[in-house]
Input
Amino acid sequence: MTITAALAGNPNAGKTTMFNSMTGAKQRVGNYPGVTVEKREGTVTVNDNPMNIVDLPGTYSLTAYSPEELVARDFLIKERPHIVMNVLDATSLERNLYLAVQLMELGIPTILALNMMDAVKKQGKEIDRKKLSELLNVPVIETIARSGKGKKELLNEAYNYAKEKDGAWEPLHISYGSDLDEAIDEMTEFIVESGLLKNQCPARWVAIKFLEEDEQIIDLAMENGVGNKLTEISDKVSKHCYDTFKTYPEALIADYRYGYIASVVKQGVIKSNTPENRIEFSDKIDKVLTHRFAGPVLMLAILYSMFYLTFSLGEIPMGWLESFFEWFAVTIGNILPDGLVKSLIVDGIIGGVGGVLGFVPLIIVMFSMITFLEDSGYMARMAYMLDRVMRTFGLHGSSVMPFIVSGGIPGGCAVPGVMAARTLRSEKEKLATILTAPFMSCGAKVPVVILLAAAFFDNSAIVMFWTTLGGWVAAFIVARILRSTIIRGEATPFVMELPPYRMPTLLGVFIHTWERAWQYIKKAGTVILAISVIIWAAMTFPGLPQDDIKSFEDQRVTLKLSYQGKILDEKILEINNLENQAALRYSIAGKIGSSFEPLTKLAGFDWRTNIALLGGFAAKEVIVSSLGTSYAIGEVDAEESSGLSMKLKNDPSWNKFTAIALLIFVLLYAPCFVTVVVMAKEASWKWALFSIVFNTTFAFTISASVYQIGTKFLM
Output
């Protein structure tokens, strides 16, 4: 018999660290059906028998206020695992017991893992686990997840307890006072008669959830034709509670639960060997790191250091990968004969894959540091400090990290930034964050900024600063517009615990980093490979007519008769570039770029710029190289674009306001295709397509306005 065990716990209680310690590399990662919440499963062997462990999303309760809570509860009710291992942060025992009590009210066999017991001892406290086990009538095990201590005992006890219970659920009954108890009993009797959720969960638990205004339970009751009667009872007791206590049943239920927990804990469960006013280590650190003035300054310094280290540490392995793909391209190019097949493989396939995989070292370093900040407890402090600013624009404090990862500090990437938004509890705030995070200055936009700054401005650093600031301002403005119109809704209260600081484990950092990096490789690599081939084809076919090809060949023959040596090479290169430009304009991409020119001229963009911007819809990385090809100087590397800078500077169709308009457009227009795919996965294709249309329209409106005003009134 295979025992299925669910691993539950509050966020930051060490649950996932325990899961990693138990399962190691034997994990399966996916998503729960219909939602973006991650699902992790692993298998271990206990007493020579297999045990399947499911790591439920971190949650504070079993009331469906968020996707995580809904997923966790639905799994428990519908899948009915044999046992729940509830991992608790023992340094905050009373708060963590709130979820444990709800699990016990549901009736599912539960075992408590008092985690971080080393931190409890450092606080000068002791927890009598035997006393706690006796009072709650459930097994209690002491653990330290980061070192694996207690893991074996927890697995053995969970296996034995699951076998002992043999699928039987025994709900805990808590009195919620005479007023609520009377209503709960009446609702319970009616629920039993109606058969609502029969064989899934206790009728009394359903009644309590109805009083807590649990939307899912209310909807199920309405669908089964029993909602009106239950609503009548609920409304009556709700009015009575407000008239009597100036509060509602939901708050009373929470108060009674905490009262029950307090009555348990006060019976000698926790003993303190230090004065009660002792300031804990985390509180001392927070006096500095979350200080009203020093906190934001230190946060900026930490974030800057994170990105500085990302590029410093990732530069060397990134160079290795780039050198490898350069060598590989040259080797394959020498083997294959000249022609379309060689161009496809070398320029389309190898160039596309190399361009994506070259960023993997940066992704790995960046994700390892983000994981470290998350697991150490500092990420919660960042959200806490920025919540007030974000809330003004309809966002949430937790939106800050998706923005930063997307390029809030230049060099990020919108793909992991959008994925990072899944931590938000409110679907509407999450959606607003997903739609605005791509406005940040991702690493793929930085070469464009450098190129245009070098060509038209004296101080590149100032241009980079204002471009970055512009991304934040645009994100805030658009978020405010969206939250006031099509994503209207109440702001979610910022109730994020500030977990104690702790040193993350190397295993935990490695597993989380690799999972994210592998997702990037799979999603970005395959998509951009396909896009690179499409771009190559669009810029290659249908090719120049034979008469035009012969004309350019005749010019080269004439040059060979008139010049020699270096001068001949320069003249031949000029003819080759002109031929490339003619072929490009005649290609599918060239014709598309030319067709948009009457409109894009409003922002100062000609057909050659349009080709680069069309490529940017697929991947912003190709904008600079596409501009180089469009301007007939061959393939241009983002870091060696001085020639292109001079070409743009000397081109009569370009000026400072053309450059500003292009900077604005590149910063704000449609996310790259990989980001769009991820947005569709995290939200829906409807919102992903909305982002393409809205962002491009918004970007062009601003760009055209700046160009028109600048050229007509400021030149």
The first strand starts at residue 3 and ends at 9. The first helix runs from residue 15 to 23. The radius of gyration is 31 Å. The chain is about 65% helix and 5% strand.
